[in-house]
Specification:
single chain, about 350 residues, alpha+beta, Pdz3 Domain, 2 domains, four-stranded antiparallel beta sheet, two-stranded antiparallel sheet, 8 helices, globular
Amino acid sequence: MLYIIVAILIFGILVATHELGHFAAAKLLGVKVEEFSVGMGPALFQRKGKETYYSLRLLPIGGYCAMEGEDEYSDDPRAFGQAAWWKKIIILVAGAGMNFLTGLIIIGVLYTPAAGFRVDVYGGPIEGYQTEDCGLLPGDRFLSVDGHRVLVYGNARFFLNRAGETLDFVVERDGQRVVLKDVHLPYQERTDEEGNFTRLRGISLGAAADKATLFNKLAYTWRTAIDFVRTTWISLGDLVTGAVGLRDLSGPVGIVNIMGEVGSHSPTLADAAWNLSYLSAIIAVNLAVMNLLPLPALDGGRIFFLIINALLYGLLRKEIDPEYEGYVHLAGLAALMCLMVVVTLSDVGKLFGR
């Protein structure tokens, strides 16, 4: 139960951090903010600054940044709706930017005490699979597999498992960059004398160590965050193509449950703190990517309309009627809420083993 409570607080903090990004950008660009709230529901504490109410609310499930003229027309010259289009884009992007920065900082803190970093290397051919002449040599460090950069340990195996029969590799060998084109490594199926079935490409992967210099710590922090972004995009692609279904999605209930399990199954308190922090970084970056998707009701959808309006005004001196744009966002919000209900029901079903 302790880790469930911790997970809820972490999730709420990540959402509140997103709103902090909007708040900071709005203040810097001179847009009036009526209220900045940490948490939702009834106010536990509220204080008015020069023009903004700062609130701490009962439910630790997020927060909000309420800007003047954000959802309705306002003739206040400092209203969000009266701001230049580029200011609006910066304010909208700032939420996702703050989430990404949060994830980056968490990763950097976790990597600070690191003594070294594991990297993917070629372990050698597996006996009996006739892959000795594939062009790879034991100890080759993978830089790219099938056109995908190997950013962090585990990427080589991940992209190797997703590739077809013929692959391209870029490896580092004795300090030199080596490109291997059209390497034929099909899966081969085997059944041993005991009836055990295997399906392998016939090559093994190993690990080597990279020194944890200050430069490498910074580099691996950045590469890990970018790998989280890439993984999110790959997951979205799998969802669109049908490789995964809605059953595989997780909403807030599922995420909190996963974080609770990660914490409770960690052998020590220190391990739990590290694992939960790492998972928090993944979620933070995931929130950044998802929120910038050009879908109605999301910041990305609002940015999309701002760009379209800027182009229309530049070409035709016309803009989309705000009322119609509002209908689109309202429909998108309704669709998003329906999806959240479906995903939440799925998460609850998983909790009860259905």
